[in-house]
Amino acid sequence: MGRSPCCEKAHTNKGAWTKEEDERLISHIRSHGEGAWRSLPQAAGLLRCGKSCRLRWINYLRPDLKRGNFTHDEDDLIINLHSLLGNKWSLIAGRLPGRTDNEIKNYWNTHIRRKLLNRGIDPATHRPISAVDFSGGGGGAAAEKRSSRGKGDRVKVARLPRCPDLNLELCISAPLEEMQHDLLVEESNCGGEFLRLGSSFLIDYRRLEMK
DNA sequence: AATTTTGTCAACCGCGGAATT
DNA sequence: GAATTCCGCGGTTGACAAAAT
User: Fold this and answer.
1) Stated in angstroms, how far is A90 CA from C9 C1'?
2) Closest protein residue to C4 using CA and C1' atoms?
3) Which residues contact A120 (CB under 8 A, 6 or more apart)?
4) Integer distance in angstroms from CA A142 to C1' C20?
């Protein structure tokens, strides 16, 4: 599928956004709403690619963003959702009001991955690290890159298969915001993990849309 | 104090898929 | 049905700051 570039690169700014650019973008979206990202830069008088504007708005300028540290509950929720959904950051973000997929992805790669490894849990499979494997592969490229900057003798963990019976016909259900407190992780009978919410019900992953 | 290493996170890139022509 | 356009996503990069040497 031949695709033209999303914008004319010769006349677009790149890199960090200036305050003035931010203000232009905010003001344009306030008066015209989100969307039509391709034509937005010209309409807003910005020398930016539409994708760049979208990213800036979604990840940084949106008024409903909750900035600041992740709470312990949010940590747990991210871990549990990741065990179900894998690197579906946008789906995970959909369950964390005020958080963006980019923010969660970064947080995962910089904090949670390490936290799980320290606990002896493989962040890719969410299972105890039980074997050493030098065959390569295995997520968290950014973190891998960082850690590989230093000495090279990292231990890689075996990639165990995920629960083969997991039904991945997923769809989104109501936000879990109010349920975050009492998430518990229990072992399922195939050895994997699933979410137990409060004492009474589970996330039905058949209702979590994979899009 | 200078240099190197490591951590963090905003932003970019390229792809897939839905929508449109 | 094929080609094109646009949007959204996930992976990756690079700049900067902090910590270590």
Assistant:
1) 7
2) A3
3) A128, A129
4) 22
CATH for A37 = 1.10.10
Q: pLDDT tens string for chain A (211 positions)?
A: 333 445 555 567 888 888 888 898 999 988 888 888 888 888 888 888 888 998 999 888 888 888 788 888 888 899 989 988 888 898 999 888 889 999 999 998 888 888 888 788 888 888 887 654 433 333 333 444 444 443 333 333 333 334 433 444 444 444 444 444 444 343 333 333 344 433 333 444 444 433 3
Q: How far apart are CA A14 and CA A190, in angstroms?
A: 48
User: Is residue A181, in this structure, part of any structural domain at all?
Assistant: no
One domain, residues A88 and A44: no
What is the rounded distance in angstroms from the CA atom of residue A102 to the CA atom of residue A54?
A: 13
| Cα(A80)–Cα(A176) distance, integer angstroms | 12
Gap from A97 CA to C3 C1', Å? 39
Task: Give pTM, 2 decimals.
Answer: 0.68
Residue with tokens 């039905």: A204
Give the domain CATH number at A94. Answer: 1.10.10.60
> Does one domain contain both A109 and A87?
yes
